[in-house]
Amino acid sequence: MTNSNPNRRGILAWTLAAFGLSATGRPAIAASLTPSATEGPFYPTERMRRADVDNDLVKIMGKVQEAGGEVFHLKGRVLDANGAPLEGKRIEIWQCDMNGKYLHSGDRQDIPFDAAFQGFGHDITGPDGSYEFRTIKPVTYPGRTPHIHVKLFDGTTELLTSQFYIDGHPANDRDRIFRRLSASDAAAVSMVFVEANGQVEASVDVTLRSV
Questions:
Q1: What is the value of pTM for the model shown?
Q2: Does residue 118 contact residue 61 with C-beta atoms inside 8 Å?
Q3: How far is 26 from 21, CA to CA, in rounded Å?
């Protein structure tokens, strides 16, 4: 005979939640899953990329000049749905330069691309799932709010494509892609800039459904 006492079920659910467990005894989902988003038309192919594709997009190896724009450090961790860190995952970002132009042959805007901006970079997550990029604050692109494109890979397998936004930017509510996000999804991919250790930083964790 099954126990249908709602009070006991409620107490059990509260107890499991308090210890971070689901009804199966497994860890409950630790954070909102990172929402996927369109790749967009300007993902740079390997042929289009600079020779330098490290995690510092502001400084190209061999060049003295640094990229124009407001420099900041984008940090975070890559986690599974239970909040466990994922080591050794490749995270890529790409974005337009300070003039709103992409490092892509398909961007036909009649403006020069910042020769000192890398435009694309990658990092490999550490044992704690951490990643870090040095880049510039994204700027508006025709028809889009400021954003940074993000891809996650496990080897050659793509795990996620998403976009990061500036928290509270006035153009967000006019952006067709941002407006599709729920409040919780928007919060999961929003960058809040803070001063820390003498530099500007933003932290965004990437939480994957499965690996």
A1: 0.85
A2: no
A3: 5
Q: Calculate the alpha carbon distances from 100 to 87, 174, 191 in Å.
A: 33, 17, 19
pLDDT tens digit at each of 211 positions of the chain: 444 444 443 433 434 333 444 343 444 445 689 999 999 999 999 999 999 999 999 999 988 899 999 999 999 999 999 999 999 999 999 999 999 999 999 999 999 999 999 999 999 999 999 999 999 999 999 999 999 999 999 999 999 999 999 999 999 999 999 999 999 999 999 999 999 989 999 999 999 987 6
- For residue 91, give Cα distances in angstroms to 40, 81, 121, 131, 149: 17, 17, 9, 8, 10
Task: Give the 3-state DSSP-derived string for the chain, with helices as H, strands as E and coil as C.
Answer: CCCCCHHHHHHHHHHHHHCCECCCCCECCCCCCCCCCCCCCCCCCCCCCCCCCCCECCCCCCCCCCCCCCEEEEEEEEECCCCCECCCCEEEEECCCCCCCCCCCCCCCCCCCCCCCCCEEEEECCCCCEEEEEEECCCCECCECCEEEEEEEECCEEEEEEEEEECCCCCHHHCCCHHHCCHHHHHHCEECCEEECCEEEEECCEECCCC
C-alpha of 70 from chain center: 18
Q: Which residues contact 198 (CB under 8 A, 6 or more apart)?
A: none
Q: How far apart are CA 31 and CA 46, in angstroms?
A: 33
